[in-house]
Design a protein that fits this description.
280 residues; alpha+beta; 3 domains; five-stranded mixed beta sheet; globular
């Protein structure tokens, strides 16, 4: 219990933004990142003092809807639907609507494509592992189509995200991600990282996706890289920029910080997990 006493002491440890550091928002971010682990708690406290904005990003509480996101996390993931569109600061050439209202007569009045977990188009379409993500897309010329994306059954996040490529999108349903060319849906491919637990932009032309122990990146030309295994489990992104992706994850003997190169996915800072791990 003594370790948790560091939370009320945050405003006194930092020399700036005392009001923010004393807030429910930052203290909730600390609790979420600690995830019941004492070592993670100490690291979360230190991060809150040195870079509380990165703390909010890592915990998913950086946006204006943070109260709803906090309710979602604390109430067993029952109060919030994460199936929203996030442009991530990019400028998509299309418009879209995740989970639109289903037509009463079942006729979407536009082409409908069902995508399997491997990114292929299936006819007939079935989502065996959960409720699919449904998205209506509209191109600049007014052409519309509807995509049905199979649930991953993996327990990850849901959502739709813009890409550095103006015609690109990433659809994630229960941790399973597909990279979509909205102008040519037949080119849709699966992103070989599952389950996806977090999506962040990194600089002006990169998106980073986190799994339990790996990272993947999407650039203007599609998939840029997939990292090697970086930790045992519980990988979280703590900061991003055009040069490196800072993260924390569980190793065999506790949580550790590390960073990978944003352009290559190669480890730049921290201990290499695979040097002491027999598996892939």
């Amino acid at each position: 219990m003594a370790c948790w006493s560091g939370v009320p002491e945050l405003p006194h440890r930092a020399g700036y933004d005392r009001e923010m550091l004393a807030s429910e928002r930052v203290q909730a971010a600390i609790v979420l990142l600690a995830d019941g682990d004492i070592h993670r708690l100490r690291q979360a406290l230190d991060l809150a003092v040195t870079a509380w904005r990165d703390q909010l990003v890592a915990a998913g509480l950086a946006s204006e809807d943070w109260p709803a996101r906090l309710d979602y996390e604390l109430d067993g993931h029952t109060q919030m639907n994460h199936r929203t569109f996030d442009a991530l600061g990019f400028s998509p050439s299309y418009s879209c609507q995740p989970d639109p209202e289903l037509p009463g007569d079942g006729d979407w009045r536009c082409p409908v494509h069902g995508f399997c977990r491997d990114g292929s188009i299936a006819e007939p379409f079935r989502s065996r592992w959960g409720t699919p993500l449904v998205v209506r897309f509209e191109l600049p010329d007014g052409t519309q189509w509807v995509g049905l994306f199979e649930a991953g059954g993996l327990g990850g996040i849901d959502g739709l995200f813009a890409c550095p490529d103006p015609s690109g999108a990433i659809a994630i349903c229960d941790g399973q991600a597909c990279l979509i060319d909205v102008a040519a849906p037949a080119r849709t491919t699966a992103i070989p990282l599952t389950p996806i637990t977090l999506v962040r932009s990194a600089g002006e032309d990169l998106i980073v996706l986190a799994g339990f122990s790996n990272l993947a990146a999407i650039g203007p030309r599609g998939q840029a890289w997939i990292s090697e295994r970086l930790c045992l489990d519980n990988l979280k992104i703590t900061g991003t920029d055009a040069n490196k992706i800072q993260s924390i994850g569980d190793f065999l003997d506790g949580a550790e910080n590390f960073a990978v190169d944003a352009q290559t996915g190669e480890l730049r800072e921290g201990r290499r997990f695979l040097d002491n791990w027999p598996g892939p």
